[in-house]
Every structure is written in structure tokens, then in C-alpha cells.
Design goal:
The complex is a heterodimer of chains A (675) and B (103).
Chain A: H1 4-23, H2 29-56, E1 63-64, E2 69-70, E3 73-82, E4 88-95, H3 97-120, H4 132-150, H5 155-173, H6 180-211, H7 216-220, E5 222-225, E6 228-231, H8 237-244, E7 250-251, E8 254-255, H9 256-271, H10 280-283, H11 289-298, H12 303-310, H13 312-317, H14 319-340, H15 346-366, H16 376-406, H17 422-436, H18 442-457, H19 459-484, H20 503-518, H21 524-527, H22 543-546, H23 550-571, H24 577-584, H25 586-593, H26 598-644, H27 652-674
Antiparallel strand pairs in A: 1-2, 3-4, 5-6, 7-8
Helix pairs in contact in A: 1-2, 1-4, 2-3, 2-4, 3-4, 3-11, 3-16, 3-20, 4-5, 5-6, 6-9, 9-12, 9-14, 11-15, 11-16, 14-15, 14-19, 15-16, 15-18, 15-19, 16-17, 16-18, 16-20, 17-19, 17-20, 18-19, 18-23, 19-23
Chain B: H1 6-25, H2 29-54, H3 60-90
Helix pairs in contact in B: 1-2, 2-3
The chains are: A mainly alpha (675), B mainly alpha (103).
Chain lengths: 675, 103
Amino acid sequence: MQPVIPIIILALPLAMFLFLGLCGHKLSHRMAGILGTAGMGVTMTLAYITAFTYFFSGSPEFIDADAHTRLQAVIFNYDWLAFTPQLVIRLGFLLDPISALLLVVITTISFMVHLYSNGYMRDHHGVWEKGFQRFYAFLSLFSFSMLGLVVATNIFQMYIFWELVGASSYLLIGFYYTKPSAVSASKKAFIVTRFADLGFLLGILVLSFYTGTFNFTDFTSTEVADGVYQISETTSAGIRDLIANSTVPMFMGASVLTWALVLIFIGGMGKSAMLPLHIWLPDAMEGPTPVSALIHAATMVVAGVYLVARLFPLYLMEPAALDIVVVVGALTALYAAMVACTQLDIKRVLAFSTISQIAFMMVSLGVTRPEFHHGVGYMAGMFHLFTHAMFKALLFLCAGALIHAIGSNNYTDMHGLRKYMPITHITFLIGCLAIAGIIPFAGFFSKDEILTATMGYSTVWYIWMSLVAGLTAFYMFRLYYLIFWWKEHKVHEGHPAPHDQPWTMTLPLVILAAISCVAGFVPMGNLVTWNGHEMFDNVNFFTNLSALNWQVAGMSLAIAIVGILVATVMYRKENRYPQMMKQALPRLWDWCFHRFYWDELYQFITHKIIFGCISKPIAWFDRNVVDGTMNAMAFVTQRLSFAIRGLQSGNVQFYVWMYLIGALLLGLITAICLI
Amino acid sequence: MELTILYYLIPSLFMFCCGVYGFVTRRNMIAMLISLELMLNSVDINFVVFNRFLFPGEMEGMFFSLFAIALAAAETALAIAIIINVFRVSENIDVRDVNKMKH
């Protein structure tokens, strides 16, 4: 494949960012919006062409047709920083199943959000939001960074773009920079993820020190021999040594490879808001809602999942690291689902739902073992990443439409909106059905695959995750009923009744809802697998349906329906059940409502322990000892110079006297010494 | 009577002391300049004398004094120029009035 299109995919959003960022204020608002949207549209088209070429062209560059195995293709790889012959940092474009999939996901959601923001970022009177052009510039920057991240050919390039998405997320969360809560939320997001990235960086250093390479193709090349998947001969010698565990040292009872992978996973935990580094994501909802849809639901937060998937063959060599991924993911999934059941702010419910769903993907990757169903978990995780991006972006954009219409984030101000906003109502319902896992919507297929994979790993976790799936259905429909049903909407005097938003906002909803209906039928097993090997011999539209394991699928469907029914009983009409639940389990409700006091815990640790016991003594030492020494030196010098400055009288002859006396004294001393 | 080195050095020393005395006591800048010349000339004499008595047959001292004379001429020109400018500014050339550069 010629590198022209891939270069444009990366260069166009960057150019758009520079143009809108530097000259945006000279453009009209409408022009800036149209330009940004059009640029993203072109990028999306090119990304579709690229992904289509990768998956369906059958070119020997991309697929080994005899072995039915998709290959990793490095489209271009530019030596960016050549420090030494061994240490070269490259920028390039890697096409493989997951990067092609992510290209499609990112550009689709980004385009929808660009389009949607044209309507969202202006009020009911058509007045544009302040900094509208800046908003589009940042959106372009984010799209560029995220695309660069997923197509990275080496782990260092990924790290660079990883930080760039963090920076653009920071900029967009703090878009309303006059609001103190937005400012502190953006700082919180940046600091927490930056803290996690420290682990990522350490992991990169450890890994590359022992393997001598940054390149993903060296890390992850696998081959099939006699039906058994194994690390191939082309893998670098450093990695083979690591896996053989012969020459590398152990550290605290675990191999270096385990340590490196766990450290890298910490970076992923920060970005993907896994327990205990999840605290930034709910606060990140202070940003504009389209930003939440793009960055904090569909794309950036799945970067951690993508990272694990990218290095998956390495993780497979260290099952201990994968077990950690499973435990972290499963705990986070349950935690976030429980918290989501009690929140008032609809964006926060969606944020916790996002955390929970990402945890599903993590679990899915963690439970993957090649001997079980050809490693179905990996495929399921990526499948869920794809479907979740679509329906969660849809839900967020619906939430944006609601917030735009009502002017408040809390469902207590909404209730009974189904008659006023029919399009939003239907699309939101489709999103809820998709996330709850109702056949035939998108979430059903991916979640079912995840549960199948989990069952092959351990029954305990299977039951656990099924429970979380049921909770998911419950809290999503709780939200749905509280927004659109519960009781009649109270229209305030003097305010127009809420209504559906302009076409720029409803069109993305309709498109995403349509995708959410059909995305489940994408034969992902043939497109994205952990080693590129195709799962099915021939595919048609109903492949996923016929490949269902009805034992698991029936269970998950039943659980979802139970969750929905419970929500229907409790929230469809105004009644006393929610209150009774709350009073029956006051302690649990309180803990969920306060998000299990994680923020308070962090507050305590940072303010009381770190600031109080470490920072304050250091600050005292700095102010008194370090500064004190310097101040004393300055004070002595100043005093001394005040004392002797009278000698500088301006009287030339006085100087000569001094000189003469000095010379004579020197002569005298010399003479005495010589004698 | 043989002229020993002292016959040259003693007048030279006297000249130098006169120069130092004049330089620190006179207030007129022209007079100070003259005193300075006196010191320089006594040093020139010393150069020549030491060359003559200690290293006969060599010429470095002689040439050095020639250099010094040339430099003294240049230095005098410079000093006179400064003095003229000082006079233009302050209407007199008393060195005690030239103290604008103090602390």
C-alpha cells in the first residue's frame, strides 16, 4: 500500500488543528465549524478506504491467504530521532487488525462529534459559544493524537501520542476555563493520568532495556506451527531470552517481563480509568458533552485496552500479568456499575457506565487463552470496544441533547420527556438496549462473547461478570425511565417546552443508533483475532448469530431482561420503590452515592499524608535552610558593600593615595618576606 | 670622577617623587598631567640606564623607552581631550569637581 493515504490521515487533522488554532479567530464561527467537520469527513473517508483495503483487498501484504492469517503491515517507518544505531526512535504507520478497526472507530465518532458540535456549541438563540474555533482546533488535535496512537509502529511513538491525547483531553475538559470546577477537573485528569504514565514509561524502559527494541512487530510477531501458536523465529533475540527466562534476572519474585507488563498496564489503568486510578473520569464530565462522547467514552479511554491488546502476545507469555488484568477489570466493573445505580447527574451515570464497560474489555483480554476457542476473549474485547464506542457515543450525544434542551445535568429536572423529544427518546432507547445486551443490538453480541470467554477462564468470574451485566441493564434503564418516564414533565412558565434539537445534532444520533442496531453482525471473528487467524471459514450476515453459544447467550439475555424488568417496575411510574430500596440498604446506598469515598480517600492521602508529612517539612527546609543560606550570603555582601562604599568617593586623588599606600605596603611586605 | 649608575638613578628617583607629589597634591588637572609626564620620563630614564649598565650591547631598554615616549604622547593627547571636555561641561578643570562618577 502506498503511504500517501496514511500520511494524509495523520496530516490532515494536524493541519486543521494548526490552521484553526492559529487563524481560527479570523474565521466566522460557522466557517470554522464547517471546515473542521469537512476535514474530519475527509479523514474519515480515507480511514475507511485504508481499513477496507486492509481487511478486504486480499493483498499478500495484508493477509496470508493460505494460512487464513492477517498480517501486520508497516506502511512507512521514518527514522525520527537516531541517537545511536541501536537507539532509534521512529514514527510510522502500522496496519494490523486492531489499528484498522480503531481507525474506523475513531474517525467515525470524531466525525459525528464534529458534526454534532455545530449544533451543541450554540445556545437556543443561535449565539455561538465563546471559543468555538478553539474547540474545533482542540478536537482536531485530539483526533490527530489518537490516530497517531493507534497506528504507532513502536512503543515509544505510542507513548508520545499517549501523552498528546492526555494533553488534548486536558485542554478540552478545561474548555470552560472560567468555571473553577472545570479547571480543577482538567488538572485532576491530567495529574492522575500523568501519574499512571510514569508506570508506563518505566515499563517501556524495562522492556526495551531487556529486549533491545521498541518495535511492536518485534514484540508481537507470532506464527502458527503444527496448529500451535508460538512466538516466531523473527522475534528479537532479547524477547526469546526473556521468555525462556534463562538470562534475565528476577526481581522480587517475578520475572522482568512480568514487571514490565504490569508497569505498562498501570499506564493503561490510568488512561482507561481502572480502579484505583478511575477518579478523574467522572470529574472529566465537566467538559462539553461532545468531548465526553468522543474522548471520555469512545476513544481515549479505551487506549488502555488498546495498549494491552497491542502487546497481547507478550502478555500471553506471562499469564500472571493477565490475571492481574482480570482482577482489576472485574473489580472495576462491579464497582462502577454499583456507583452508576445511584448517581443523579446523567453524564456521571454514563461515565461510570463507561468505566464498567471498559473493565469488561479488560477482563475480556485478561481471560483470553489461545487454547480456549482460539482466544475468543481478545476478539470479544476488541468487538466490545467497537460496539461500545458506537452506542456509548450515542448515549452521550443523547445526553448532550437533553442537557442542551433542559439546561441541567440532573435527571431530577427532566422526567417524562418522551413526548417532547421523540428522536432523542428513540435513539437513547436503542443505545440502552444495545448496552444492556438485548438481541439483536450491538452490545448483545460483544458482551455475549466476553461472557463466553470468561466462562472458559473461571466460573467465579463468569458469574461475577454476568451479575455486572445485569446491573448494567438495570442502571441504564433506570436512567432511561427517569429521564423519559417517571412523571409528567413540568414546563416552567415563560420557558418554551423542550424539543428535539436541530438536524446537526439529531443526524449523528440517528446514524449512531442505526450503527448500534447492526454493528453486532460484523463478523469480527474473521477480522480481528489475537494472532490474525480467521475464525470462520466463510461468513455471511448471520455468522455471529449462528455462532452463538445459546447456553451463554440465553443466560446473558435472561439476566439483561431481568435487569430491565426490575428497572421498569421501579422507575416507570413515580412510586415509592426507589425510596424503599434506599431505606432498606442505607449504608450501601450511601457508599454508592459517594462513590465508595474514593475521592475522600485520595484527598486524605494527598493532603494529610503526602502534603502534611512530606511536602511541608520539605517546604520548610527549602524556605529556611536553602533559602536561608542564600539570603544570609546576600545580606552579608550587602552590609559589607554599604560599609565600604564610602571609599568610592569619586575623588581621583584619593584613589591615587590609596593606590600609593597599597603599593608601598605591598613593597614593604615583599621586602620583609625577602629579608 | 666616574659616573656610576647612582648618578642617573638618584635624579630619576627625585623626578619620580616629584611626579607622585605633584599628582596627589595639585588640583589642576593640567598640572596633574604634567606630574604624570614627569613620572613617565623618570621611568624612561631608568629603562635606558639599566639597559646601558646591566646589559651593554643590547637595545631592548632603549627601544622600550622609545615606545613609552610614543605612548605617552598618545596618552597626553587623550588626557587633554578629556580635560577640554570636562572644561566645557563644568567651566573649570579642578579635579575635585570631577566626582560625578562616585557611588
